[in-house]
Specification:
- By secondary structure, the chain is of the alpha/beta class.
- The protein has a domain of 136 residues: Vaccinia Virus protein VP39 (Rossmann fold).
- Helices cover 26% and strands 17% of the residues.
- The strands form two sheets. A six-stranded mixed sheet has the order 2-1-3-4-6-5. Strands 7-8-9 form a three-stranded mixed sheet.
- Helix 5 crosses helix 6.
Amino acid sequence: MADQSVHFSSATNEWATPQALFDSLNDKWHFDLDVCATPQNAKCVKYFTEQEDGLAQPWSPYVCWMNPPYGRAIKHWIKKAYDESQRGATVVCLIPSRTDTSYWHDYVMRGDVEFIRGRLKFGDAKNSAPFPSAIVVFHRAARQSDGAVPTGRGDGGTKLRLSEANPDAILWDGFDDALVGVGYRCGMEYVAVYDRDKCLEVLMDQGLSLDDAEEYFSYNVEGAYAGECTPIIVSLHG
């Protein structure tokens, strides 16, 4: 039986990166380096093993794939991924969606976050993981000086990336400050991701009470499904 502990490591075959997910991302990013792997589960020709210690190695100027150990050390890998992006690497990470952690707010939200709806099955596991997952992209710092629009919480970069991924994606008028990223439902197109609490704040800034904002949002926004291009709503604050 596969170990269902949330502290599993990407270095076990039971929890190896789902191949179909990696293939879809590799088609887009063309990875050069797997920064956290074993010879058995490495996704790139060039990779770092536990003995080589990817945390101690330079990652720039490569396009890197990172599925790190999911225990306490994950915060060090996330910081390393961000730091290496500032040195010229592009790092695409598969991590648990733990939005309440300090590393999420300190580093993940500086990247481009795509929430994966549902729960992944890792490697040959028969059961889904006991937590949701997210793809986080830390773009190389030079991207911002090349004329590209930086992506980030509620700015135009998220809209730009979404328009490139899915021109038909629905955006809610007046809720730009609550736009937190791009996500997708299994087998469907990329869509906008909004922070529910931020949406309520937008409505309260317009003069609604919290109760009235909740009622309006529940009936007029949250309950208005418009097909597979409908935005995903998440709560990042509990």
